[in-house]
Amino acid sequence: MAEPLTRVDSAVQGLEGTSPTKEKASHRRQSSSAAGVSSMKDMWETRTKLQVAPETQKTGWKINTSPSTVEEKDILKKPLVTPMVRSINLITSTNIVLTARNRHGVTIKDALDAIHKNYKKRADDELDRPYLVGFEWAPEHTEYNEENPADLETMADEWQRLIIHLASTPGVTSFGGGKKKKNKNADAE
Which helix (H) or strand (E) holds 97? Predict the structure, then answer.
């Protein structure tokens, strides 16, 4: 008889025993965030002060409507704070914490989207204060004693978030935009 029978896999017969993973050059993936964008943790550790964009004040935006209903659409693309951050916590007067995220830097639209997501299913009559007045960064107006552990903890919490201020009436003067009413005496003449 000839040779004993052996099992052969035709797909790999005759190929060298090298693995394709060994031939690949290994490399680390770059950070997926944009250059110049930091985390809130980094801002806290370096004690970098944040500046809230003044365009966020008195927008007249209703929190249960889409952010695209803001009258000045160009403000939606502007950064919420400078220096730009990847994510920031937004806290309401009822202590609900919302997070706005964008790996290229949080914009005003990202913050409005985070607020809208929480309030979009609420009816107008359910909201006591439905209009956005603006955002506040508390450490800008507060003095802390970094030697006191309780103050340090409070400072760390407040450093990494913005306070959302709401009102019962829209804060813009151009709200409504109806036609000017004619004088009744002018119609009579």
Answer: strand 97-101
